[in-house]
Amino acid sequence: MAAHRAEAAAPIDFSELGALDTAGAALLIRLIGVERLRELPPSAPGLTVERRALLLAVGEAMAAPEAPAAPAPHRLADVLAAVGALLTETWSNLLLLLNFMGLALATLFTVLPRPKRWRLTSLVTHIHQTGLDAVPIVSLLTFLVGAVVAFLGATVLAQFGATIYTVDLVAYSFLREFGVLLTAILLAGRTASAFTAQIGSMKVNEELDALRAQGLDPMEMLVLPRMLGLLITLPLLTFLAMLSGLVGGAVVSVVSLDISLLRFIDIAREIPLRHFLVGLSKAPFFAFLIALIGCLEGFKVEGSARSVGAHTTSSVVQSIFVVILLDAVAALFFMEVGW
C-alpha cells in the first residue's frame, strides 16, 4: 500500500513527449487517472500551458457522467400529446380567425361611409378573377354532377316504378345543397389559394411593409376588395351552378329516362321557392369565410417560398372544412325549423 502511494505521488516527467493530440491525451488520462491529472503542478517538466489545458479538457470530458438513457416511447402518451397539440392549434386558429373577422368588419364599416376611399378598380378586378374566370369550371362540374345524380336516382327509383321522381331529386338537391356547396368548394380551392399566394408573396417581398410605411392600411387595400368581390360573385355563381345542375339532370332525363323537356320543366316549376332561397342564402356566409381564411393565411406567411406553399395548402384545407361544417350546421337548422 505504501509503495502504491509512493508511486502515485512520484512526479511525472513530460519532457520526452514530442506531440500531443486528443487521442494521446485520452491515453495518458487512462494511465494516470483524472484525479492525478488535476493534482499535477503547473511546473511539471515538459507540461506546457497548452498541453495542460488539453489534458484538463479531455479529462473533464471523460469524467462527465453519461447521459441518462431516453425513456421508452409510450404510444398512448404520444397520441394524447398529438391530440392535445392539434386541439390547441385549432383553438388558436379559431381565435385568430374571429379576431381577423372583427378587424375586417370594423374596416368595412369605417370605409363604407367614405366613398372616396372605395377601391372600385380593385373590386372590379377581383370580381372578374373570382367570378367570370370561374364560370366555365363551375358550369361544367355542376352539369356533370347533375347528370350523375340523375343517373343514380333513376337507377334506384326505377326499382319502384318512380323514375319520374328523378326530376324532384335533381331539383331539390341542387337548389338546396349541391349548387352552393360545389361552388363554394371550387372557390375554396381556386380563390382562397389565390388570395393566400398573392398576399403571401407580397409579404415575402416586403410590399406589405411598404404599404404601412406609406400610411396605407393593408386591410383596406387588400382584404376588403377581395372579400367584397367574393361576396358578389359567389351568389351569382351559385345561381349558375343550380341552373347547370338542372340542365345536366334534364339532359339525362330526356336522353335516357324518356322524360320530355316540357315535363321536366313543369315538375321543376312546382318546387317551392323557399328551397331556392335556402340554398342561395348560404352563399354570402361561405364567401365571407373563404375570403377571410384565404387572406388570413396570406398574412401568416413568413419570409420564404416554402411558407407560401404551406399556408396556401392550409387555406384550401381550412376553407373546404369550414364550408362543409357550416353547410351541415345550416342543414340541421333548416330541418329543425321546417324549411
Describe this structure in words.
The protein is mainly α and 339 residues long. It folds into two domains: 13-63, no CATH class; 117-337, no CATH class. It is built from 13 helices and no strands. It has helices at residues 2-9, 22-32, 34-39, 49-63, 75-111, 120-130, 135-157, 166-204, 207-213, 218-256, 261-269, 273-300, 305-337. α8 (166-204) runs antiparallel to α13. The protein starts with a helix and ends with a helix. Residues 1-8 have low confidence and may be disordered.
Largest sheet: none
Our Rg estimate from Cα atoms comes to 36 Å
Estimate nothing, just give the exact number of structural domains: 2
- Uncertain stretches of 5 or more adjacent residues: 1-8
**Helix vs. strand class:** mainly alpha
Can you write the helix and strand succession as a string? HHHHHHHHHHHHH
Task: Output mean pLDDT.
Answer: 83
End-to-end gap: 101 Å
Strand content: under 5%
Helix content: over 70%
Number of helices: 13
| Mass-distribution shape | elongated
Report the strand count.
Answer: 0
